Amino acid sequence: MDFINSLTPETENRVSAEDLRTELLRRRYAELLAQPEVFPSQANWDFIIEHALTGIGEGLYRKFLVSAVLPEEQRRSPNRIALKEFPRYLQAVPRAYAIEVVYDDTVSAPEATRKIVEDCELFDAPAISGLVARGEAAMAAELLNAFQPDYGHDDLEDMRALLRLLRNLPEEGEMADGRGLLRRELRYVCPAGHVNAAEAQYCTHSGCGLNIYGLTREQTQAIDAFEERVDALGTLLDK
Question: Of 59, 105, 221, 236, which sits with the fewest C-beta atoms within 10 Å of its C-beta?
Fold first, then answer.
C-alpha cells in the first residue's frame, strides 16, 4: 500500500481571485445593462472585450441596436462608443456565442444587423435557416452576402440545405380572379395586398416590389448569387 498516495486529496477545481472578481463584475454588468438608460463606458467596454465576457451579449446588443436606429444628430458619446465597440466584442467572444446573440434579433434594426453580420463574418447557414423557419425569409436573403472565416464539408451541406429552403419558400401572395370592365381577369395580389397585372413577377406599387414569395428582386438575385457560391465552394472542397 502506498501510504503517501492514500492521503493525497483528490484533485479539485480551483478558482483564482481574478476569475472571481471578473465573474462578480460580469454579474454587475448584466444588472446594469438591463436598465435602458445605462450604457457601458469606454473603460467598461475595454474590460468586457479584454476578458471576452459572455452572458451579457444580449444586453450589449440592445445598446448597439438602440444606438444604430438613432439619427446621427441624436447620438451621444455612449451611443457612438457602443457602435464602435460592439463589433470588437463579437470578434473577441467565441464565434458560436456571437452568432447566438446577433441572430436572436434581426428585426429591431435590420440594416445594422446585416452590416454587422457582414463586417464580422458571422454568416451561419443553420442560423439563417432558422430565420426562414420563423418567417424572416426576406432577412435571410439579405444576409446571404456575408461570409464566414472558413468552410468545411459540413458547412457546405448546411449551405445546400439553406439553398433548398430558399428555393422552396411558401407563397405569401396569390393569383386571384379580379373583375375588369368587360370580363373577369386573373391578377397578382402581392403579400402586402397590392393588386397587379397577372404577368407582374414583382409588385409594381411604389415602395413594395414583392414577389409571390415575399421577396424583392434584389433579394431573389442574392439567392441566385448564393447558389453560385455554394457551387464554387463544392468545387474547391472536392479538389
Answer: 236
Question: Do residues 102 and 90 lie in contact, with contact meaning Cβ atoms separated by under 8 Å?
Answer: yes
Question: What stretch of H or E contains 175?
Answer: strand 174-179
Asked if 216 and 208 touch (Cβ cutoff 8 Å), the reply is: no
Question: What CA–CA distance (Å, rounded) separates 111 from 25?
Answer: 32
Enter the DSSP assignment of 131. Answer: H
Phi and psi, residue 67, nearest 5°: -70, -35
Q: What is the CB-side half-sphere exposure of residue 17 using CA atoms within 13 A?
A: 0
Per residue in 194-230, pLDDT (tens digit) is: 999 999 999 999 999 999 999 999 999 999 999 999 9
pLDDT, tens digit, 9 for 90 and up, residues 151-190 = 999 999 999 999 999 999 999 999 988 665 556 789 999 9
Q: What is the phi/psi pair of residue 184, to 5°? A: -80, 140
User: In angstroms, rounded to a whole number, what is the distance separating the alpha carbons of residues 56 and 211?
Assistant: 39
| Residue in 215, 175, 218, 177 with CA at minimum distance from that of residue 199 | 175
For residue 59, give the H/E element and its range. helix 57-69
Long-range contacts of 203-208 (CB under 8 A, 24+ apart): 203/173
**Quick one: cell of 85?**
465597440
Question: Residue 78 is placed in which grid cell?
Answer: 455612449
Give the three cell numbers for residue 231. 457551387
Cα three-residue angle 102-88-23, rounded to 5 degrees: 80
Global pTM reads 0.88
CB 123 within 8 A of CB 143: yes
β-strand partners of 189:
174, 195
